[in-house]
Amino acid sequence: MDEKTTFGVIVANRGFFPEHLIETGHRTIRRVLEEAGYGCVSPDFEATRHGCVESNEDAKKCARLFAEHAGEIDGIIVTLPNFGDERSVAKAVRWSGLDVPVLVQAEPDDPEKMDLDNRRDSFCGKMSICNNLRQYGISYSLTSMHTESLESPEFAHDLENFAATCRVVGALDGARFGAVGARTGPFLTVRYSEKLLESEGISVETVDLSEILAAADSVRRNSNDFKDKRAALSSYVECPGVSDEAFDRMARFGVALDHWISENDLDGVAVQCWTAIEEIYGIVPCAVMSMLSNSGVPAACEVDVTGAVSMYALQAAAGRPAAIVDWNNNYGSDPNKCVAFHCSNLPRDVFEECRMSYQAIISADVGKENAYGTIEGRVKAGPATFLRISTDDELGLMRAYAGQGRFTDDPLETFGGYGVLEVPALQTLLRHICSAGFEHHTAVALARRSEAVCEALGTYLGWEIYHHS
Predict the structure, then answer these.
(1) How confident is the model at residue 8, as a pLDDT?
(2) Cα dist. 139→93, 131, 134 in Å?
(3) Degrees to nearest 5, angle at CA 378 with 374 and 382
(4) Which pLDDT score is estimated for 155?
């Protein structure tokens, strides 16, 4: 989650505009990216005129450079210090062979500097750049203002969002998820299409729960893996009343799951969490799953594979762990507030404080002694983004919704992992979820990233997405 985002940069130029504009523009974009903590791949100032792209030959040089750094470049920024040459920009992107997001930025003119020595015309040139990119079949993103300075707060915001978009697109490209166990019988809501996911380059590996439990039983108590996992679990959160036997079972289960994830190169998992594992093995897997999510391997409940995909995409956008929750309860009579809840396997980082306990709901069926391992607490107050990705098997397409809200500090006493979530026009969102037949689960992360997620899934992956803005 902490890897540096790197951009390929194309400084577009049209030859008869003032030369000082392209030199200053190129130096500025390099400095802005460096100060913001991003990597930059761009032609050297000596490779072309001030490192800009304005001809076929420049486009070839830029394309070769990008191709040489293809493994590093997460997105491309086209910056227009003046009108720019639209053809060479489109050619440079196409010839590079890169299939990454593209952001088009245009520098504004100063009304007091509209003479021949300072005039830019980037306002107009941006339209030509976008027109040519579209003709070439290249998807692209736009800044929030048609023209905005590289040094402006608006561009800083757009750059941050674009980096998040690039991270989501890159994360989902070739992503792999694990389904541990069979879907719990009543949960038809989390059914999904493996074939549709595979058609989008997202693979699913399956394993029977019995295989993981058998592997857990074979974990030796004197092994380093067991000792390390046991220590990590007991120090993860406060654990009042959790027995040594429950810790041992969780540790063995965690080691078996870690090995299977590693062997299959998985980015996330969805686990059959009840009631088989409690009845057969005597724990709930929540704490193990919480630790996975907190470490950057999202783990969803109830074999909700597309829920895990949602968590993974949101994690990439936010740069921090994502949780999966139920849209669970109304909050009094407030139409814009609800209770987000799970039993829970929420990652530690989303809580204001939390502890390990037993799962209160399921303990009535399997006994308290077989239900230890849940993580309980209240979600931190602050901004939040929610995202749900789903497969529409009937129409044969991927669809999703995303939006923003905030967790509040409104009073609430309950169990599990929970928070009061305030979303503007919540009733409209709930109507959309129900009308479109979305699942009752959603992924949440403590950040504002719905614009970036929608841009990634809609513009670049071509999925049907509703942005609740």
Answers:
(1) 98
(2) 11, 11, 7
(3) 135
(4) 98
Helices (H), 108-174: 122-135, 153-172
Euclidean distance between CA atoms 273 and 283, whole angstroms: 9
**Residues linked to residue 342 through DSSP beta bridges, in sequence order:** 417
Beta-strand ranges (E) seen in 359-458 are 372-379, 382-392, 397-408, 417-422, 441-445
What's the per-residue H, E or C state across 41-103?
ECCCCCCCHHHEECCHHHHHHHHHHHHHCCCCCCEEEEEECCCCCHHHHHHHHHHHCCCCCEE
Distance of alpha carbon 356 from the chain centroid: 27
**Pair of tokens at residue 462:** 């071509």
Give residue 2's pLDDT.
59
What beta strand segments (E) does 322-381 contain? 323-330, 337-342, 351-358, 372-379
- pLDDT tens string 279-318: 999 999 999 999 999 999 999 999 999 999 999 999 999 9
Label the pairing between strands 397-408 and 464-468. Answer: parallel
In sequence order, which residues have a C-beta less than 8 Å from that of residue 87 and are 6 or more positions away?
132
pLDDT < 50 positions in the chain: none
143-to-80, 107, 372 alpha-carbon distances in Å:
12, 11, 49
Place of tokens 């046991």: 230
The pLDDT of residue 16: 78
Can you give the pLDDT at residue 186? 84
Cα 250 to Cα 22: distance, rounded to the nearest angstrom: 60
Domains by residue range for the chain, with CATH:
6-172 (3.40.50.10940), 176-468 (3.20.14)
Hey, what are 333's tokens?
Answer: 């009579």
Question: According to the 3-state scheme, what is the secondary structure of 175-206?
Answer: CEEEEECCCCCCCHHHCCCHHHHHHCCCEEEE
CB 151 within 8 A of CB 60: no
Contacts of 361-370 with C-beta under 8 Å, sequence gap 24+, read 361/416, 362/274, 362/275, 362/278, 362/284, 365/275, 365/278, 366/275, 366/278, 366/279, 369/243, 369/246, 369/282, 370/278, 370/279, 370/282, 370/283
What pLDDT score does 306 carry? 98
430, two tokens: 């709930």
